[in-house]
Amino acid sequence: MSISAAQVKELRDLTGAGMMDCKAALAETGGDMEAAVDWLRAKGIAKADKKAGRTAAEGLIGVDAGVREAAIVEVNSETDFVARNEAFQQIVANVAKVALAYGDTDAVANAKYPGSDKSVTDTIRDAVGTIGENLGFRRSQKLAVSQGAVATYIHNAVADNLGKLGVLVAIETTGDAHKAGAFARQVAMHVAATNPLALSTDELDPAAVEREKAIFSEQARASGKPENVIEKMIEGRLRKFYEEVVLLKQAFVINPDLTVEKALKEAEKEIGAPAKITAYVRFALGEGIEKEESDFAAEVAAAVKK
Predict the structure, then answer these.
(1) Domains along the chain?
(2) Which of 52-56, 209-213, 231-235 has the lowest mean pLDDT?
(3) Would you list the DSSP string of 261-279?
(4) How far apart are CA 268 and CA 173, in angstroms?
(5) Within a 10 A sphere around the Cβ of 157, how many other Cβ atoms?
(6) pLDDT class for 190, splitting at 50, 70, 90?
(7) How far apart (Å, rounded) are the C-alpha atoms in residues 172 and 276?
(8) Of 32-46, 107-121, 152-166, 255-269, which gets the smallest average pLDDT?
(9) Are the C-beta atoms of residues 54 and 134 closer than 8 Å to each other?
(10) Residues 127, 94: contact at Cβ < 8 Å?
(11) Distance CA 189, CA 116 (A)
(12) Average pLDDT, the chain
C-alpha cells in the first residue's frame, strides 16, 4: 500500500524515530499506526532515538593489538554504570577489533560488526534499546610500523584492554621488537601521565608557539632589561615550554634524570639498533565533550511544584 508523508510525519512525532525508519515501520504494518509504533519499539529504534539527545560522555576506551600494529577506540555511554556492564564491554572490545582492521573512524563506523551483517553504528544503535542508554561510537585511530613495535597502555583498566584512558606508542627499529615494545609501553605510561601536546618541536602547532612567544615577550619586556637580555630570556622560557609539552623533551617519568629522547638512546643499547618513536595516540574518555550539568535539588523542587 502507499504510505503518505502525513503518516510518516505522525509516526515520527509519536516516536522520535527517523523518517526512513517510520516509513519502513508503516510499510511492514500495512499503515497501522499503533502497530508501527510497536514495530519501532520492538526494534529498539523509538527508544534509541528518544535517548539520542542525551549527552553520552561516559563509556570506555578500548585497545587491540596485532603484529606491529595497534588500534584504540572510544565508545560512549551516558553513565559510568553502563561501563561496568559486560555486554557494553564486549561491544567496545569488538569495535577495537574492527578498528585494528579498518583504522579510520568513518571506516570503522561503516564496517561490519564481528559476527553480524550490521555495521558498527547500527549494532551500537540496536544496543541502546537493550542497555537503555544513549550510546555512541565516537572515534578510533590505528598505528602501525614496518619494523619495530606498537605498544598499548590502558590506565586503571576495568577489564582486559578496557578503561578510561588509553595510549598507543609506535617505535620503528630493526632491533629486538620485544624489547622495543617493552620500552614503548613505558613511554605509553609516560604519555598517559603527562599528556604532551606533540611528539617533537616540529610537530607543535605554530599558532600555539607564537602565542607563547608573545606572552614571554611581554613578560620579558616588562622587566625593563636590555633587548639582548630580553631575547635570551624569551629563548629560555620557550625552551622551558618545550620541555613541558613536547614528548621527546619531557623528563621521563620512569627516570626523571633523563628526557624521553635520552631515555630512547639508552634503550637502543638493549634493543640492539637505532630506534625512533614515530607516533603516539592518547584517548581520554569524554575529553572535549560538554557534559550536561544537572541540579538535582532544583529538579526535585520543580517536580514538587508540578
Answers:
(1) 5-51 (1.10.8.10), 58-184+277-284 (3.30.479.20), 205-244 (1.10.286)
(2) 52-56
(3) HHHHHHHHHHHTS-EEEEE
(4) 9
(5) 16
(6) very high
(7) 5
(8) 32-46
(9) yes
(10) no
(11) 35
(12) 86
**pLDDT grade for 294, boundaries at 50, 70 and 90:** very low
Coil vs helix vs strand at 8: helix
Q: What is the DSSP letter of 248?
A: G
* Residues 171-183, mean pLDDT to the nearest whole number: 97
3-state DSSP assignment of residue 183: helix
Per DSSP, the three-state class of 47 is: helix
Is residue 76 left, alpha or beta, with left meaning phi > 0 and alpha meaning psi from -120 to 50? beta
Could you give the CA distance from residue 233 to residue 291 in angstroms, rounded to a whole number? 41
- DSSP strands (E only) in 105-210: 136-144, 148-155, 162-163, 165-173
The helix (run of H) or strand (run of E) holding residue 14 is helix 5-15
C-alpha span between 27 and 285 (Å, rounded): 41
DSSP E strands in the chain: the ranges are: 58-66, 69-77, 136-144, 148-155, 162-163, 165-173, 251-252, 255-259, 275-284
How far is residue 71's CA from residue 276's CA, in Å, rounded to a whole number? Answer: 19
Angle CA 184–186–192, to nearest 5: 105
Q: Give the 3-state secondary structure of residue 288.
A: coil
How far apart CA 120 and CA 158 sit, in angstroms, is 22
Q: If you ran DSSP here, which 8-state letter would residue 201 be given?
A: G
Tally Cβ neighbours within 10 Å of residue 67. 9
